[in-house]
Design a protein that fits this description.
The structure is a homodimer. Helices cover about 35% and strands about 10% of the residues of chain A. With about 900 residues, chain A is an alpha/beta fold. In chain A, the strands form five sheets. In chain A, strands 11-17-16-15-14-12-13 form a seven-stranded mixed β-sheet, sandwiched between helices. In chain A, helix 21 links the parallel strand 12 and strand 13 (about 590-595). In chain A, helix 7 runs parallel beside helix 13 (about 325-365) and helix 23 packs across helix 26. Chain A is globular and about 85 Å long. Chain A starts with about 25 loop residues before the first helix and ends with a helix. At the A-B interface, helix 4, helix 5, helix 13, helix 16 and helix 17 of A face helix 4, helix 5, helix 13, helix 16 and helix 17 of B. The complex binds pyridoxal-5'-phosphate (PLP) (2 copies) and bicarbonate ion. Bicarbonate ion (BCT) sits at the interface of chains B and A.
């Protein structure tokens, strides 16, 4: 079967009516067509899909076949989806918001909008764990870090955090850890501590450090120098939430002694998106930090210098659960800085500040009074606010007598007049026109003492620079990225297009709900669908990532226990094989982690589980488990938390509720097709059983969640709301049947791949029928024994074949976890298998001594293009003629992707994790 | 100076007011900044820009410095432009049109919209004359040809023509030529022949052939088999205008004996765009035809098998002036066919036909009568049409008593109900709802005898396929494309974004003018600006390409002569150095070409001109001249046609009116920044002096032009109207000052490049001050003499350095014409010069015998990636170690672009042209 034999979108099934849409999405989302699926089944020895699925998914956890179907979720075609999106967009009112509170009207340079935000070669990349295939993004993230370091005047900055709220929490934890208050972390983080809101609002003095904001929520810029000295004298840290644009004019935190500076980078050209996604910045750690290192040939190469995956190493001792960050948005902010350059940023900052001063001057003439005299872009005014709504603009409603007005780069003369005249109308003052506006520059409302005097940042060309960086990075536009546990599937363009329409992108998260009916429908639908899919009762779309979902779910369980007077329950059982974020999230939620062992074959040790559950029964709070691992039969006296990060291949066949869970989190950036963005954004909603629903998280500005909610877990009420559209569209377009078909084909593709590779590699974790689920785990331990070849060597060699390596060294250090997903065509799956098999032959040459153990195509991998430029002399040092390492299979002449650096000489964090272990 | 030293967008000039926009476009459009320009001037020995410009542009053709300024054209920033575009878009009403007449509501698959139409790597490419750098597009264009061949059942098809009207004209000419009526071509094409409208409407029996349409304008499908036999018996040809979607159900022209089939491919996923751009198809010739050939290593490679540049060879004997085609739109249509596959296309065709039958059935129940019984997608109904307008839909208003309704793929149940109920409302019939609509399939309204029975077309994966083809092609996202006479400059994203908004893309060209006020403003502004820039009185935006503009301009001159009783004037003087389309266009316009010689130094032979002008004075109709060539001093007793295809570096310094012209055409896809689209679309408006204004072309449906207009020269009233937005935005964003600055920097960059290359290569055409204009011409004749190296060898070698070669062998066969434009940065210009100089060193090695004459890095160029995969044995055949041909300069390790095939073994059309000559 070849591509040319395949027949486009149309399936065998003829259209159901004259009006039926013909661009059926499941035909495009699901790689193999009916004929190919039949062929794959026959290779596995089945003559029906049902017979196959029955042997893969145990009957005791199966759900009824009509649980998920087109009757439950009716499908939309790609064109219908876009039409629906237009209608929903029209239900989001296009009021302009000057609400501030961390969200602005960003002006996205068109070249960045189209060539990064709307470009699959930027948004479909995986996290840059494989540095050799990710030099473009890494360079751009270094630009981000440099920009943050330069604007904050701090020595080090990370490459982004989820949002400002998470960054605040991280700052708090860091202050605690640094000041040796480690022991006090747990009580401090208890949900009971209501005065400490897990939100963007941090003006709280705590014993470990001082949290300051400048400019603050009400717009005031403050001088913290005196206070900082006192705090330092008390050996505590000073953390400051601040604003990047203001820092072009304000004395930077690094210059007045702050230890930590953090905030949201979104106003650097990232749309508000009804709350996100946005990249928080954090100077200094934690999070991912990109560093410049050297590759195997001693040439400069960027790589992750620090991953937040310290969870892999320290597990229950980890102090942060952060995993996914916001690479795509950090890259946009970095490119925005490159586009404008330092002088441009300063001019924008001056303009925003100047307009704010002018506004103050004008409205004071009308008789209003500004509460604060020192400000950057925000005025707090004593005023009534009915006029604003009439003018089609949103101001911040502080209380009955006060409004906040926050200006930004987008404010043109017409916008400005509209604001001015709304204030004028309110008091019957005369209307201004463009002609009678004063425009001269006023003296700054920033006191001399805290004005910025230092310089920052360089710049460059745009479109080609963007393309040049893009060309260094492998993404889904090139080939499959078969990452076990991460589920990289088709990220359809149709689900992405509406995101950048202003109806979705230019919406402030705190506008009145009647202005966002389109968004509300999407949110409502998605909650319903996720409940259907999980079998649960209620859903929170607030958590901004899988780890945030874990934290939220466990916090909900804690709140439940407390509500029943069982607040002492603080033990969380977690299998040793669990994802590293699990124990870290449990720690963050104030739980004590008790690990549960694995058996030799990798499955959960049920005896150990029983033992520990009994031992801790009085204090047991929760048990975190991966859905695939076990069908829980224990009576649910404690909360069972399903780590359903990856629900792929389960939808319509089984669900977490049926498996006995109480809570489950889902990474929408996996099963539900939000693209990985080169390392974020993600979304990690949770679904819960009925008894937990009252405790779902709320939000201080826009109430969400249950009747006895836990505090907010994200800065915005529905997290990174704009990308919820993607998962909504994914479900809508597939419909019930398409979702179930996707599950089945995902199982089939994994088993077909297992079948093709099984003669060549050792597979682990097969079930009694010899079948795997939607992932396969290959163990490379034997090659280390026989030839000194490690799993990493195979992974790096795959890069030379144009594939992103699957997940390595997880969940077992000598293994590779492979997940083809339902979206890959049979042709692509075969191409990947061919590469794996060819590498097996290459390994054979090392095993038989044809290539030396320390100089062979696996150890030398990847081979970047610079190999070609080596001298004849240097070429002689290769074990075989250079053409073979570079172009090992004929199709690579046409489809070669070149890693741009050779292997980095420092071990990866995963590797050191296992070396430590 | 390096990129990192440059400082982003901001210029030295501080913002003029608090409200001034800070994303000034000219800072981004113009590559070198002030400091770099000063450096370049100093290298040339000037200390002011004015002193330099004075030595380049002769004072006698200069215009006043305030002729073009910010007072004349005020600048908009990028963000302001987008805001303005939104307002203009809102002025185009979003009525849905079922007018038909060749334009439909296309449904663009989102993956194609985003990844081709909105992707600079597809829309900024140059025409694929350099096959080695264009294999992706060539493959896609072969898909287009295959699709056309397959749907029409013709043996050969070209890779697109400008529009259906042009295709009709080509069919006519082909019929005439084929049937030996050559001599009659001229009178036949006279503008006087009013019965032959140069439009999409061709149902005219002519002596050389029979022009048929099926389905015809009124929707009727006809059986032409009998008639075709009679026409063939009379040794004439049958040409048919037809519809690709209908051909999925209709017996294809190739099966019933048509000799030529043509039409518009736009309904295959290309938006209406208020008239275009769209790709016409034409099976068989003329136009560009892509063929599969073999490269120097015998591997398969696509290339232009036939270019329409027969004008280069046959010049005044050429029978077609077509040059630019519609590659981008042809690629979209081809991808649409791949996306849907043959079964998908058949289903769409069936659906459209089925809905049309259903509509007929329903409205007949209301008492309407369909005029034709055999139809595909169009009903002609006896009806009044006021109800339609009320319902917000446009039908075709045929006359007081008849409407046409044309359905298409976009029609969903709601659309359908809206149409049905408009008819119902008109006669007071009951309103239908989704529930009471009959949906069963009816018997076909296509007679059995002309139904299609044969099969067509294969299919494939989408995003990766698109990306894979894209990755083979060099475009402006990689590096500069310094094509002399073609002016490849920055195609800013901001000018491209609004094009794909439905407010601009989903507009039928024949809607009432009150529905398109946004478009009308853009058209009005652009006409005004182009008149300002040229110094002329009136403008026609109708011609779809440069060649069409030439034809239009000369036709206007002829009409003028006729109006004065001088219809006998039919001689057109054209310099031998003119672009090949000039004589061909003159021929098409019914003029006799008399060539004017060039002098040794390449300039026009004024003595010869005078002689010929005097000799033909009684019959002289026009003199076609390139603006740069000469300042015309002859009294304008005849029309002087300025071939201003390329106005770059002239705006604000001189203009065609000042130079003595009467008409001038402009290729908007050059000076005015419409991207080249990989070989189209283009636009070629004309501006004329006051006495010619009455003759500007009109249009049969939407009147345009002067009071005594010539016939339409394009299918749509304003040609490819949607892309006029790009040039409008270009002018709007630069403003007067930015336009003038662009001219000056274009001159400076060319002279700086000339300065850098002058020690290494021989430059031709310098002025008395040793300066070139905005292009430089290098002569390679000396290398042929000394080492057998031809200009092509240098061009092909440039590919190995990642540059698209400049224009080769034109206007002089041994030369290369280089145009850096104002958009390239100093760094990029230097990089290009470095490559040229390094190639000069490589040539030296051949001259001195270090590399053999028949086996050297120039003759072997380009070196595709497959070279790496050659065996050690084969590598030994290279003249030097392989790393040098592949990576000749260090920066190529990072920025290498790989040609995907080696040199094609057949000579190019240009080469054979000069061999013939
Ligand atoms: C099983 C599992 N749980 C949790 C996570 C953490 O998700 P996130 O990166 O969105 O925080 C992941 C993601 O890598 C995962 O694979
Ligand atoms: C000088 C000149 N005239 C005319 C043309 C023809 O323009 P078009 O290809 O748009 O028909 C060109 C384009 O190559 C040109 O360079
Ligand atoms: O630079 C661009 O606007 O594409």
């Amino acid at each position: 079967l070849t591509a040319t034999q395949r027949k486009g979108l149309a399936t065998a099934k003829p259209p159901s009516s004259l009006f039926a849409a013909l661009d059926t999405f499941s035909d495009r989302h699901i790689g193999p067509d009916n004929a190919e699926a039949a062929y794959m089944l026959s290779k596995l020895g089945y003559n029906s899909m049902d017979a196959f699925v029955d042997e893969v998914v145990p009957s005791k956890i199966r759900i009824p076949t009509d649980a998920i179907s087109d009757n439950v979720i009716g499908p939309l075609s790609e064109a219908e989806l876009l039409r629906r999106a237009r209608l929903l967009g029209a239900e989001n009112k296009q009021y302009k918001s000057y609400i501030g509170m961390g969200y602005h009207n960003a002006v996205v340079p068109p070249v960045i909008l189209r060539n990064i935000m709307e470009n699959p070669a930027w948004y479909t990349q995986y996290t840059p764990y494989q540095a050799e295939l990710a030099q473009g993004r890494l360079e751009s993230l270094v630009n981000f870090q440099t920009m943050i370091m330069s604007l904050t005047s701090m020595d080090i900055a990370n490459s982004s955090l989820l949002d400002e709220a998470t960054a605040a929490a991280e700052a708090m934890v860091m202050a605690l850890v640094a000041s040796n208050y480690k022991k006090t972390l747990l009580p401090f983080l208890e949900p009971g501590q209501k005065d400490l809101e897990f939100s963007w609002l941090w003006v709280t003095l705590i014993f470990a450090g001082f949290f300051s904001i400048t400019p603050d929520l009400d717009g005031q810029v403050k001088d913290f120098r005196g206070l900082t000295e006192s705090v330092h004298a008390a050996k505590a840290l000073v953390a400051v939430a601040t604003d990047l644009l203001a820092l072009a004019l304000l004395k930077p935190p690094g210059e007045w002694g702050a230890d930590i500076a953090f905030g949201n980078s979104a106003r650097f050209g990232v749309p508000a998106g009804y709350g996100g996604p946005h990249a928080a910045f954090f100077a200094k750690m934690p999070g991912r930090i990109i560093g410049r290192s050297r590759d195997a040939h001693g040439l400069p190469a960027y790589r992750l210098a620090l991953q937040t995956r310290e969870q892999h190493i320290r597990r229950e001792k980890a102090t942060s659960n952060i995993c996914t960050s916001q690479a795509l948005l950090a890259n946009m902010a970095a490119m925005y800085a490159v586009y404008h350059g330092p002088e441009g940023l300063r001019r924008i900052s001056n303009k925003v500040h100047g307009l704010t001063q002018l506004l103050k001057e004008i409205v004071e003439r009308f008789g209003y009074r500004a509460i604060h005299q020192h400000f950057f872009d925000t005025l707090m005014l004593d005023s009534l606010h009915s006029a604003a709504a009439k003018a089609g603009i949103n101001l911040r409603i502080v209380d009955d007598k006060h409004v906040g007005v926050t200006l930004d780069e987008s404010v043109g003369p017409i916008d400005f007049l509209r604001i001015v005249n709304a204030f004028a109308a309110s008091v019957g003052a005369p209307i201004s026109t463009a002609e009678n506006l004063p425009t001269s520059n006023r003296s700054s409302a920033i006191p001399e003492s805290i004005r910025r005097t230092s310089d920052y940042l360089p710049s460059s060309e745009m479109l080609r620079y963007i393309h040049h960086l893009q060309s260094k990075d492998l993404s889904l536009v090139h080939s499959m990225t078969p990452l076990g546990s991460c589920t990289m599937k088709l990220n359809s363009t149709s689900s992405m297009i509406p995101l950048t329409w202003p109806e979705f992108s230019a919406v402030h998260p705190f506008v009145p709900l009647e202005q966002v009916k389109g968004y509300s429908k999407i949110i409502g639908d998605l909650e319903t669908y996720l409940c259907k899919v999980t079998g649960f009762h209620a859903c929170s779309l607030q958590p901004n990532s899988g780890a945030a979902g874990e934290y939220a779910g466990l916090s909900v369980i804690r709140a439940y226990h407390e509500s029943r007077g069982e607040g002492h329950r603080d033990i969380c059982l977690i299998p040793v094989s669990a994802h590293g974020t699990n124990p870290a999230s449990a720690m963050m939620a104030g739980l004590k982690v008790v690990p549960v062992k694995s058996l030799q074959d990798g499955s959960l040790d049920l005896v150990d589980l029983k033992e520990k559950a009994e031992k801790h029964s009085d204090n047991l709070a929760a048990f975190m488990v991966r859905l695939a691992e076990v069908h829980i039969t224990y009576p649910s006296t404690f909360g069972v938390f399903e780590d359903g990060a990856n629900l792929n291949a389960k939808i319509g066949l089984t669900n977490p509720a049926t498996c006995g869970g109480d809570v489950c989190h889902m990474n929408l950036h996996k099963t539900f097709a939000i693209p990985h963005g080169g390392g974020g954004p993600g979304m990690g909603p949770i679904c819960v059983a009925e008894h937990l629903a009252p405790f779902l998280p709320s939000h201080p500005i826009v109430p969400t969640g249950g009747e006895r909610p836990i505090d907010a877990v994200s800065a915005a009420p529905w997290g990174s709301a704009s990308i919820l559209f993607i998962s909504w569209a994914y479900i809508k377009m597939l419909g019930g049947q398409g979702l179930v078909d996707s599950s089945k084909i995902a199982l089939l593709s994994a088993n077909y791949m297992a079948h093709r590779l099984s003669g060549h590699y050792s597979l682990r974790y097969k079930n009694a029928n010899g079948r795997v689920a939607h992932e396969l785990l290959i163990d490379f331990a034997e090659f280390d024994k026989s030839a000194g070849l490690k799993v990493t060597d195979f992974a790096k060699r795959l890069q030379d074949y144009g594939f992103h390596p699957p997940t390595v060294s997880w969940p077992i250090s000598t293994c590779m976890l492979i997940e083809p997903t339902e979206s890959e065509s049979l042709e692509e799956i075969d191409r990947f298998c061919d590469a794996m098999i060819n590498i097996r032959h290459e390994a054979e040459e090392v095993m038989t001594g044809k290539q030396p153990r320390d100089n062979n195509v696996l150890k030398n991998a990847p081979h970047p293009m610079s190999v070609i430029a080596l001298s004849e002399e240097e070429w002689k040092r290769f074990p075989i003629h250079v053409s073979r390492p570079l172009i090992p299979l004929p199709w690579l002449r046409e489809r070669k992707f070149w890693p741009t650096v050779s292997r980095c000489d420092c071990p990866s964090v995963e590797e050191s994790a296992h070396e430590d272990a």
